[in-house]
Amino acid sequence: MEVRVHQDYCKGCRLCVTVCPRKVIEEGAELSERGYVPPIVAHPEKCANWKRTDKKKAVCEMCILTCPDHALEWDKKAGPQQEVGEE
């Protein structure tokens, strides 16, 4: 599973970038449709939960728990460059 950023919810506060102990999430460079610069999941393989399945308990969810806009979630189907909501 990988963490995914909902660009339509994110306001670019970068709290997730700050709290991530493994530096999985980095500051983004592109403006969203809402005019914010959402972060990117730059190193998903560094995440403690990267190979987690639904049957296992999550080890770390600091980014998800810290986000005030609920813009982060686990996504087990997404490919390396796919954003949540894209098909």
Question: What is the gist of this entry?
Answer:
The chain has helices spanning 15-19, 62-66, and strands at residues 2-5, 25-26, 40-41, 72-75. The chain is of the alpha+beta class and 87 residues long.
Strands, helices and their partners?
Layout: E1 2-5, H1 15-19, E2 25-26, E3 40-41, H2 62-66, E4 72-75
Antiparallel strand pairs: 1-4, 2-3
Describe this structure as you would to a colleague.
- The chain has helices spanning 15-19, 62-66, and strands at 2-5, 25-26, 40-41, 72-75.
- It is built from 2 helices and 4 strands, in the order E-H-E-E-H-E.
- The chain has a two-stranded antiparallel ribbon with strand order 1-4. Strands 2-3 form a two-stranded antiparallel ribbon.
- It has a single domain (1-79), classed as Alpha-Beta Plaits (2-Layer Sandwich), CATH 3.30.70.20.
- Mean pLDDT is 85; it is low at 78-87.
- The protein is α+β, with helices and mostly antiparallel strands and 87 residues long.
- The radius of gyration is 12 Å and the shape is globular.
